[in-house]
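WARN retry 2 of 3 for item q-0093 after timeout on previous attempt; input resubmitted unchanged.
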Amino acid sequence: MNMRHAFVAAHKTVYPIAQLCRIVGVARTWFYGFVQSQPARDQRHKLRTDRDAELLPKIKEAFTQSKKRYGSKRVHQDLKADGEDVSERRVARIMRENNVSPRLHKRRKPRTTDSNHSLKPSPNLLEQQFDCTVPNSVWLADITYVDTAEGWLYVAAIKDMATREIVGWAMADHLRSELCCDALNMALGRRGPVLGLIHHSDRGVQGGFNRSSQHPFDGGVGDALSTWLEARSNVESRSNNYVAGGFPATLAGVAIARHCQDVLERDALKALQAVEAGALTPAVENIIEVNTLLSGLGFENVGCSAAHGVHDGLTILRETHSFFHGEKVAFGTICLMVLENRDLAEIEKVVRFCRAVGLPTTLADLNIIENVSEKVRCVAEAACLDGGIIHATPVEITPESVTSCILAADRLARSLEP
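OK item q-0093 returned
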Protein backbone atom coordinates (compact mmCIF):
# COMPACT_ATOMS: atom_id res chain seq x y z
CA MET A 1 0.00 0.00 0.00
CA ASN A 2 2.92 2.38 0.65
CA MET A 3 4.01 1.94 -3.00
CA ARG A 4 0.54 2.92 -4.26
CA HIS A 5 0.43 6.02 -2.12
CA ALA A 6 3.93 7.01 -3.26
CA PHE A 7 2.96 6.52 -6.93
CA VAL A 8 -0.11 8.74 -6.65
CA ALA A 9 1.78 11.38 -4.67
CA ALA A 10 4.59 11.48 -7.22
CA HIS A 11 2.29 11.97 -10.21
CA LYS A 12 -0.55 14.09 -8.76
CA THR A 13 0.91 17.31 -10.26
CA VAL A 14 0.70 15.83 -13.76
CA TYR A 15 -2.50 13.75 -13.65
CA PRO A 16 -5.75 14.08 -11.72
CA ILE A 17 -5.72 12.26 -8.36
CA ALA A 18 -9.01 10.53 -9.14
CA GLN A 19 -7.56 9.06 -12.34
CA LEU A 20 -4.36 7.90 -10.56
CA CYS A 21 -6.39 6.25 -7.78
CA ARG A 22 -8.43 4.31 -10.36
CA ILE A 23 -5.22 3.13 -12.04
CA VAL A 24 -3.69 1.77 -8.82
CA GLY A 25 -7.03 0.43 -7.57
CA VAL A 26 -7.62 2.49 -4.43
CA ALA A 27 -10.28 4.96 -3.31
CA ARG A 28 -9.55 8.67 -3.37
CA THR A 29 -10.57 8.92 0.30
CA TRP A 30 -7.93 6.29 1.14
CA PHE A 31 -5.23 8.46 -0.48
CA TYR A 32 -6.24 11.52 1.52
CA GLY A 33 -6.53 9.56 4.78
CA PHE A 34 -3.28 7.59 4.39
CA VAL A 35 -1.05 10.14 6.11
CA GLN A 36 -3.46 10.66 9.01
CA SER A 37 -3.68 6.87 9.65
CA GLN A 38 0.09 6.25 9.56
CA PRO A 39 0.58 6.44 13.39
CA ALA A 40 -2.12 3.79 13.91
CA ARG A 41 -0.46 1.51 11.37
CA ASP A 42 2.91 2.00 13.00
CA GLN A 43 1.38 1.07 16.35
CA ARG A 44 -0.18 -2.10 14.92
CA HIS A 45 3.13 -3.05 13.28
CA LYS A 46 4.97 -2.56 16.58
CA LEU A 47 2.46 -4.72 18.46
CA ARG A 48 2.76 -7.44 15.83
CA THR A 49 6.56 -7.33 15.89
CA ASP A 50 6.63 -7.45 19.69
CA ARG A 51 4.23 -10.40 19.71
CA ASP A 52 6.33 -12.22 17.13
CA ALA A 53 9.43 -11.61 19.23
CA GLU A 54 7.59 -12.98 22.27
CA LEU A 55 6.44 -16.10 20.43
CA LEU A 56 9.73 -16.93 18.69
CA PRO A 57 11.58 -18.32 21.77
CA LYS A 58 8.54 -20.43 22.68
CA ILE A 59 8.31 -21.76 19.13
CA LYS A 60 12.02 -22.61 19.16
CA GLU A 61 11.68 -24.35 22.54
CA ALA A 62 8.79 -26.50 21.33
CA PHE A 63 10.71 -27.26 18.15
CA THR A 64 13.85 -28.24 20.09
CA GLN A 65 11.89 -30.46 22.49
CA SER A 66 10.58 -32.37 19.47
CA LYS A 67 14.22 -33.05 18.50
CA LYS A 68 13.70 -30.64 15.58
CA ARG A 69 11.08 -32.87 13.99
CA TYR A 70 7.82 -30.90 14.41
CA GLY A 71 6.31 -28.71 11.71
CA SER A 72 4.09 -25.66 12.29
CA LYS A 73 0.94 -27.71 12.96
CA ARG A 74 2.39 -29.71 15.85
CA VAL A 75 4.30 -26.72 17.24
CA HIS A 76 1.02 -24.79 17.17
CA GLN A 77 -0.68 -27.61 19.09
CA ASP A 78 2.04 -27.48 21.75
CA LEU A 79 1.68 -23.69 22.09
CA LYS A 80 -2.10 -23.99 22.40
CA ALA A 81 -1.62 -26.66 25.09
CA ASP A 82 0.59 -24.19 26.97
CA GLY A 83 -2.19 -21.57 26.86
CA GLU A 84 -0.91 -19.39 24.01
CA ASP A 85 -3.62 -17.71 21.92
CA VAL A 86 -2.06 -17.81 18.47
CA SER A 87 -3.09 -18.96 15.01
CA GLU A 88 -1.39 -21.71 13.06
CA ARG A 89 -0.77 -19.31 10.16
CA ARG A 90 1.15 -17.00 12.47
CA VAL A 91 3.25 -19.86 13.80
CA ALA A 92 4.00 -21.01 10.25
CA ARG A 93 4.99 -17.46 9.22
CA ILE A 94 7.31 -16.96 12.20
CA MET A 95 8.97 -20.35 11.61
CA ARG A 96 9.40 -19.58 7.92
CA GLU A 97 10.84 -16.09 8.51
CA ASN A 98 13.34 -17.44 11.08
CA ASN A 99 14.34 -20.62 9.18
CA VAL A 100 12.88 -22.90 11.85
CA SER A 101 11.99 -26.04 9.91
CA PRO A 102 12.47 -29.79 10.40
CA ARG A 103 15.28 -31.42 8.51
CA LEU A 104 14.03 -34.04 6.11
CA HIS A 105 16.34 -37.04 6.21
CA LYS A 106 16.03 -40.00 3.96
CA ARG A 107 16.09 -42.99 6.27
CA ARG A 108 19.41 -44.72 5.91
CA LYS A 109 19.28 -48.45 5.48
CA PRO A 110 21.65 -50.24 7.83
CA ARG A 111 24.81 -51.95 6.65
CA THR A 112 24.91 -55.50 7.96
CA THR A 113 28.35 -56.21 6.48
CA ASP A 114 31.41 -54.16 7.32
CA SER A 115 34.63 -55.66 6.04
CA ASN A 116 36.68 -52.57 6.89
CA HIS A 117 38.09 -53.78 10.20
CA SER A 118 41.39 -54.99 11.63
CA LEU A 119 40.13 -58.39 12.81
CA LYS A 120 41.76 -61.36 11.15
CA PRO A 121 39.07 -63.29 9.25
CA SER A 122 38.82 -67.06 9.53
CA PRO A 123 40.04 -69.03 6.52
CA ASN A 124 37.50 -69.72 3.79
CA LEU A 125 37.07 -73.48 4.23
CA LEU A 126 34.06 -73.69 1.91
CA GLU A 127 35.77 -72.06 -1.11
CA GLN A 128 32.43 -71.40 -2.82
CA GLN A 129 31.58 -75.12 -2.97
CA PHE A 130 27.90 -74.75 -2.12
CA ASP A 131 26.83 -78.18 -3.41
CA CYS A 132 26.17 -80.07 -0.18
CA THR A 133 23.99 -83.14 0.38
CA VAL A 134 24.99 -84.21 3.91
CA PRO A 135 23.05 -82.52 6.77
CA ASN A 136 25.10 -80.85 9.51
CA SER A 137 28.20 -80.57 7.36
CA VAL A 138 27.86 -76.93 6.19
CA TRP A 139 25.97 -74.11 7.89
CA LEU A 140 25.57 -70.75 6.20
CA ALA A 141 25.13 -67.65 8.39
CA ASP A 142 23.93 -64.16 7.52
CA ILE A 143 22.19 -61.09 8.97
CA THR A 144 19.22 -59.15 7.63
CA TYR A 145 17.00 -56.36 8.93
CA VAL A 146 13.28 -55.61 9.18
CA ASP A 147 11.73 -52.13 9.32
CA THR A 148 9.31 -51.94 12.27
CA ALA A 149 7.34 -49.17 13.96
CA GLU A 150 9.94 -49.16 16.77
CA GLY A 151 12.99 -49.04 14.48
CA TRP A 152 15.23 -51.55 12.73
CA LEU A 153 15.03 -55.16 13.91
CA TYR A 154 18.12 -57.22 13.07
CA VAL A 155 17.81 -60.95 12.44
CA ALA A 156 20.72 -63.40 12.37
CA ALA A 157 20.00 -66.81 10.86
CA ILE A 158 21.94 -70.02 10.26
CA LYS A 159 20.86 -72.36 7.45
CA ASP A 160 21.82 -75.99 6.92
CA MET A 161 23.16 -76.05 3.35
CA ALA A 162 21.94 -79.60 2.69
CA THR A 163 18.38 -79.43 4.04
CA ARG A 164 17.85 -75.64 3.56
CA GLU A 165 16.47 -75.60 7.11
CA ILE A 166 17.02 -72.60 9.39
CA VAL A 167 18.65 -74.34 12.35
CA GLY A 168 19.31 -71.26 14.47
CA TRP A 169 18.23 -67.66 14.62
CA ALA A 170 18.26 -64.62 16.89
CA MET A 171 16.72 -61.14 16.86
CA ALA A 172 17.91 -57.89 18.47
CA ASP A 173 17.92 -54.12 18.08
CA HIS A 174 21.70 -54.05 17.54
CA LEU A 175 24.41 -55.53 15.31
CA ARG A 176 26.87 -56.56 18.02
CA SER A 177 28.51 -59.97 17.95
CA GLU A 178 26.11 -61.26 20.64
CA LEU A 179 23.46 -61.45 17.92
CA CYS A 180 25.57 -63.92 15.92
CA CYS A 181 26.51 -65.87 19.06
CA ASP A 182 22.85 -66.25 20.09
CA ALA A 183 21.95 -67.65 16.66
CA LEU A 184 24.91 -70.03 16.77
CA ASN A 185 24.03 -71.13 20.31
CA MET A 186 20.50 -71.99 19.20
CA ALA A 187 21.78 -73.99 16.24
CA LEU A 188 24.24 -75.92 18.41
CA GLY A 189 21.57 -76.47 21.04
CA ARG A 190 19.17 -77.93 18.47
CA ARG A 191 21.66 -79.94 16.43
CA GLY A 192 24.49 -80.46 18.92
CA PRO A 193 28.24 -80.10 18.27
CA VAL A 194 29.25 -81.98 15.11
CA LEU A 195 32.83 -82.85 14.28
CA GLY A 196 33.89 -81.52 10.87
CA LEU A 197 31.05 -78.99 10.64
CA ILE A 198 31.84 -75.84 8.60
CA HIS A 199 30.18 -72.62 9.80
CA HIS A 200 30.44 -70.22 6.85
CA SER A 201 29.58 -66.51 6.80
CA ASP A 202 30.78 -63.34 5.11
CA ARG A 203 33.73 -61.43 6.56
CA GLY A 204 31.85 -58.59 8.18
CA VAL A 205 32.92 -57.35 11.60
CA GLN A 206 30.21 -59.31 13.45
CA GLY A 207 31.76 -62.47 12.05
CA GLY A 208 35.06 -61.55 13.66
CA PHE A 209 33.95 -62.73 17.10
CA ASN A 210 36.26 -65.22 18.75
CA ARG A 211 34.28 -68.41 19.26
CA SER A 212 36.39 -71.49 19.90
CA SER A 213 35.29 -74.89 18.61
CA GLN A 214 35.61 -76.05 22.20
CA HIS A 215 32.67 -73.96 23.46
CA PRO A 216 29.78 -76.15 22.26
CA PHE A 217 31.66 -79.17 23.56
CA ASP A 218 32.35 -77.84 27.04
CA GLY A 219 28.80 -76.44 27.12
CA GLY A 220 27.57 -80.03 26.81
CA VAL A 221 29.97 -81.06 29.56
CA GLY A 222 28.52 -78.37 31.83
CA ASP A 223 25.01 -79.69 31.30
CA ALA A 224 26.07 -83.30 31.81
CA LEU A 225 27.96 -82.35 34.98
CA SER A 226 24.68 -81.50 36.69
CA THR A 227 23.08 -84.87 35.86
CA TRP A 228 24.33 -86.85 38.86
CA LEU A 229 24.32 -83.97 41.34
CA GLU A 230 20.71 -83.09 40.49
CA ALA A 231 19.74 -86.77 40.44
CA ARG A 232 20.98 -87.06 44.02
CA SER A 233 18.85 -84.03 44.96
CA ASN A 234 15.73 -85.51 43.39
CA VAL A 235 16.23 -88.85 45.13
CA GLU A 236 16.63 -87.12 48.49
CA SER A 237 13.59 -84.87 47.94
CA ARG A 238 11.56 -87.76 46.44
CA SER A 239 10.55 -85.60 43.50
CA ASN A 240 9.06 -87.08 40.34
CA ASN A 241 10.95 -87.48 37.08
CA TYR A 242 9.83 -86.32 33.60
CA VAL A 243 8.46 -89.62 32.26
CA ALA A 244 4.75 -89.69 31.33
CA GLY A 245 3.70 -86.98 33.75
CA GLY A 246 6.06 -87.93 36.57
CA PHE A 247 7.12 -91.05 38.46
CA PRO A 248 9.66 -91.64 41.25
CA ALA A 249 13.27 -91.81 40.11
CA THR A 250 14.21 -95.14 38.58
CA LEU A 251 17.20 -97.21 39.65
CA ALA A 252 18.42 -97.28 36.06
CA GLY A 253 18.17 -93.49 35.80
CA VAL A 254 20.21 -93.03 38.98
CA ALA A 255 22.85 -95.50 37.77
CA ILE A 256 23.11 -93.74 34.39
CA ALA A 257 23.46 -90.35 36.13
CA ARG A 258 26.25 -91.70 38.35
CA HIS A 259 28.00 -93.16 35.31
CA CYS A 260 27.84 -89.75 33.59
CA GLN A 261 29.82 -88.27 36.46
CA ASP A 262 32.43 -91.00 36.34
CA VAL A 263 32.98 -90.62 32.58
CA LEU A 264 33.19 -86.84 32.81
CA GLU A 265 35.82 -86.94 35.55
CA ARG A 266 37.85 -89.49 33.60
CA ASP A 267 37.59 -88.27 29.99
CA ALA A 268 36.29 -84.68 29.77
CA LEU A 269 39.63 -82.86 29.86
CA LYS A 270 41.25 -85.34 27.45
CA ALA A 271 38.32 -85.02 25.06
CA LEU A 272 38.41 -81.21 25.07
CA GLN A 273 42.13 -81.18 24.32
CA ALA A 274 41.55 -83.62 21.45
CA VAL A 275 38.77 -81.45 19.98
CA GLU A 276 41.04 -78.41 20.09
CA ALA A 277 43.62 -80.43 18.16
CA GLY A 278 40.97 -81.56 15.64
CA ALA A 279 41.36 -85.20 16.66
CA LEU A 280 38.75 -87.90 17.23
CA THR A 281 39.72 -90.11 20.17
CA PRO A 282 37.90 -92.65 22.37
CA ALA A 283 37.63 -89.93 25.04
CA VAL A 284 35.83 -87.65 22.55
CA GLU A 285 33.41 -90.42 21.60
CA ASN A 286 32.72 -91.15 25.29
CA ILE A 287 31.98 -87.48 26.06
CA ILE A 288 29.72 -87.16 22.99
CA GLU A 289 27.76 -90.16 24.27
CA VAL A 290 27.54 -88.63 27.74
CA ASN A 291 26.49 -85.20 26.43
CA THR A 292 23.90 -86.34 23.91
CA LEU A 293 22.54 -89.65 25.27
CA LEU A 294 23.38 -90.61 28.84
CA SER A 295 22.79 -87.15 30.30
CA GLY A 296 19.36 -87.01 28.67
CA LEU A 297 18.42 -90.47 29.91
CA GLY A 298 19.60 -89.55 33.38
CA PHE A 299 17.64 -86.35 33.83
CA GLU A 300 14.49 -87.71 32.11
CA ASN A 301 14.37 -90.70 34.47
CA VAL A 302 15.44 -88.87 37.65
CA GLY A 303 14.87 -85.11 37.24
CA CYS A 304 16.46 -81.68 37.57
CA SER A 305 16.72 -79.31 40.54
CA ALA A 306 18.56 -76.14 41.55
CA ALA A 307 21.36 -76.27 38.94
CA HIS A 308 18.82 -75.84 36.15
CA GLY A 309 16.71 -73.61 38.38
CA VAL A 310 19.56 -71.13 38.75
CA HIS A 311 20.13 -71.39 35.00
CA ASP A 312 16.51 -70.42 34.38
CA GLY A 313 16.92 -67.39 36.62
CA LEU A 314 20.16 -66.35 34.90
CA THR A 315 18.42 -66.18 31.53
CA ILE A 316 16.63 -62.95 32.52
CA LEU A 317 19.98 -61.10 32.51
CA ARG A 318 21.14 -59.80 29.12
CA GLU A 319 24.77 -60.32 30.18
CA THR A 320 24.31 -64.10 30.11
CA HIS A 321 22.64 -64.38 26.70
CA SER A 322 25.89 -65.10 24.85
CA PHE A 323 26.64 -68.16 27.03
CA PHE A 324 25.60 -71.71 26.27
CA HIS A 325 22.92 -73.44 28.30
CA GLY A 326 25.51 -75.80 29.78
CA GLU A 327 27.82 -72.96 30.79
CA LYS A 328 25.09 -71.39 32.92
CA VAL A 329 24.10 -74.81 34.31
CA ALA A 330 27.73 -75.36 35.39
CA PHE A 331 27.61 -72.29 37.62
CA GLY A 332 24.15 -73.38 38.80
CA THR A 333 25.67 -76.74 39.81
CA ILE A 334 28.09 -75.00 42.18
CA CYS A 335 25.15 -73.02 43.60
CA LEU A 336 23.21 -76.28 44.07
CA MET A 337 26.00 -77.78 46.15
CA VAL A 338 26.26 -74.65 48.31
CA LEU A 339 22.48 -74.61 48.75
CA GLU A 340 22.56 -78.25 49.91
CA ASN A 341 25.56 -77.55 52.19
CA ARG A 342 27.71 -80.29 50.63
CA ASP A 343 31.24 -80.98 51.86
CA LEU A 344 33.73 -78.27 50.97
CA ALA A 345 36.09 -80.82 49.41
CA GLU A 346 33.34 -81.98 47.02
CA ILE A 347 32.47 -78.40 46.05
CA GLU A 348 36.12 -77.56 45.50
CA LYS A 349 36.50 -80.64 43.28
CA VAL A 350 33.62 -79.49 41.05
CA VAL A 351 34.95 -75.91 40.88
CA ARG A 352 38.41 -77.09 39.83
CA PHE A 353 36.89 -79.46 37.25
CA CYS A 354 34.87 -76.60 35.72
CA ARG A 355 37.95 -74.41 35.54
CA ALA A 356 39.99 -77.17 33.93
CA VAL A 357 37.47 -77.61 31.10
CA GLY A 358 36.80 -73.87 30.68
CA LEU A 359 33.38 -73.59 32.34
CA PRO A 360 32.35 -70.48 34.31
CA THR A 361 32.58 -70.70 38.09
CA THR A 362 31.89 -67.11 39.19
CA LEU A 363 29.40 -64.36 38.39
CA ALA A 364 32.19 -62.38 36.72
CA ASP A 365 32.79 -65.33 34.38
CA LEU A 366 29.17 -64.84 33.25
CA ASN A 367 29.74 -61.09 32.68
CA ILE A 368 27.76 -60.15 35.81
CA ILE A 369 30.02 -57.42 37.15
CA GLU A 370 27.95 -54.31 37.95
CA ASN A 371 25.04 -54.06 40.43
CA VAL A 372 25.71 -57.68 41.38
CA SER A 373 23.48 -57.90 44.48
CA GLU A 374 20.49 -56.38 42.72
CA LYS A 375 20.88 -58.64 39.68
CA VAL A 376 21.35 -61.77 41.78
CA ARG A 377 18.15 -60.92 43.65
CA CYS A 378 16.30 -60.71 40.32
CA VAL A 379 17.80 -64.07 39.26
CA ALA A 380 16.68 -65.69 42.52
CA GLU A 381 13.14 -64.35 42.24
CA ALA A 382 12.85 -65.66 38.67
CA ALA A 383 14.24 -69.05 39.69
CA CYS A 384 11.81 -69.40 42.61
CA LEU A 385 8.58 -68.86 40.69
CA ASP A 386 5.82 -71.34 41.50
CA GLY A 387 6.27 -74.58 39.61
CA GLY A 388 9.99 -73.99 38.98
CA ILE A 389 12.30 -76.99 38.90
CA ILE A 390 14.40 -75.50 41.69
CA HIS A 391 11.76 -76.66 44.18
CA ALA A 392 12.88 -80.28 43.65
CA THR A 393 15.92 -79.49 45.80
CA PRO A 394 15.70 -81.14 49.27
CA VAL A 395 16.00 -77.86 51.21
CA GLU A 396 13.74 -74.88 51.84
CA ILE A 397 13.67 -72.69 48.73
CA THR A 398 12.99 -68.95 49.01
CA PRO A 399 14.27 -65.97 47.00
CA GLU A 400 16.34 -64.99 50.04
CA SER A 401 17.99 -68.41 50.41
CA VAL A 402 18.73 -68.67 46.69
CA THR A 403 20.17 -65.13 46.62
CA SER A 404 22.45 -66.00 49.55
CA CYS A 405 23.58 -69.28 47.98
CA ILE A 406 24.44 -67.64 44.63
CA LEU A 407 26.50 -64.94 46.31
CA ALA A 408 28.16 -67.51 48.59
CA ALA A 409 28.96 -69.81 45.64
CA ASP A 410 30.50 -66.89 43.77
CA ARG A 411 32.62 -65.91 46.77
CA LEU A 412 33.67 -69.51 47.43
CA ALA A 413 34.77 -70.04 43.82
CA ARG A 414 36.73 -66.77 43.83
CA SER A 415 38.47 -67.75 47.07
CA LEU A 416 39.85 -70.96 45.60
CA GLU A 417 43.20 -70.48 43.92
CA PRO A 418 43.13 -71.15 40.16
